[in-house]
Amino acid sequence: MAQQFSFPVWLINLDSNPERYKSAAEQLDKLGFQAERFSAIYGKNLSEQAINACYDSKLNREKFRRPLSAGEIGCYLSHRTLWQRMVDEQIPLALILEDDIDLEAEFVTVLQKISQLDNWDMIKLADDRDGKGEQKLALGDGYELVNFAKVPNCTTGYALTLQGAKKLLSRPRFFRPVDVDLQFYPELGLSVYSILPYRLWSASRFESEIDKMSGGSRKGGTSFWRNLIYRLQLRAVRKKHLSGDLSSVQYKAQSATEKV
Predict the structure, then answer these.
(1) In the chain, what percentage of residues exceed pLDDT 70?
(2) 132-153 burial code (b ≥16 CB/10 A, e <16)
(3) What region holds the Glycosyl transferase family domain (predicted)?
(4) pLDDT of residue 257
(5) Domain range enclosing 159
(6) At a CB cut-off of 8 Å and minimum separation 6, what does 140 contact?
(7) Per-residue pLDDT at 258
(8) What are the pLDDT digits (tens) for 44-69?
(9) Which residues of 83-101 are buried (b: 16+ CB within 10 A; e: fewer)?
(10) Region of 201 on the Ramachandran plot (φ > 0 left; ψ -120 to 50 alpha; else beta)
(11) Is the pLDDT of residue 255 over 50?
(12) Residue 2 lies in a domain
């Protein structure tokens, strides 16, 4: 049975990985979702001109510990293209998923909770380090909305509002990996939350495409001082800020008869 949610579900998938798309699409189909496939941007196919148009190498040297790999640039640009689509088409809310996912049946409940929330930018739906959050807002049925001092890694899956997309696009060019950039949310005035417990996970059976493009390593080009400066910048964010004000989020709980 198709789920009756008003927002689109976009599944990012490289043309060279049909097996990953098949796995993710079948899982979503079992839960009643028809995802729209987005053909991911393969970083190694980008021209120097295309890279310079979206990637700021000068700010990268100042604000990140190493140069971005071609895979990281392609990954960021894939997400950024979908954010731009939200703005161009005035889409109020979208669900953006990468293709290396495993879903639990209760994922539907998480999306029901999201549909009842207002006044937020991004809700991350997965975390590769199992962060617990700092403050909590009870959503019923054992679920909580949480904010962070340390925003979770990965962009495996997240919900994004139009307001959030505009904030993410306010930076003309990027200079960090997309998931790291989200950890510097104060620079964009972005609010980032998660709903716990997580019902979406990164599938360990698939190798990272970014690592494959980078030959298994993303550590080249760094130095002691460059790494130290980056670590201090990140520490300052985590010490001084939380990723969102839970008191400003509006939650309208549905009755049992109203639930999808």
Answers:
(1) 90
(2) ebebebebeeebbbbbbbebbb
(3) 8-175
(4) 33
(5) 9-251
(6) 113, 253
(7) 40
(8) 999 999 999 999 999 999 999 999 99
(9) beebeeeebebbbbbbbbb
(10) beta
(11) no
(12) no
User: Which is higher by pLDDT, 220 or 124?
Assistant: 124
DSSP code, position 99: S
Asked if the structure places residue 257 within a domain, the reply is no
Tokens of 55: 């990637």
AA letter at 25: A
pLDDT above 60 (res 216)? no
Amino acid at 87: V
Identify the CATH number of the domain in which residue 205 sits: 3.90.550
Would residue 256 count as lying in a domain? no
Report residue 110 as tokens.
């998480």
H or E segment to which residue 97 belongs: strand 93-98
- Split into its structural domains, the chain has a count of 1
Q: Is residue 194 part of a domain?
A: yes
Q: Name the more confident of 69 and 216.
A: 69
Six token digits for residue 228:
């130290």
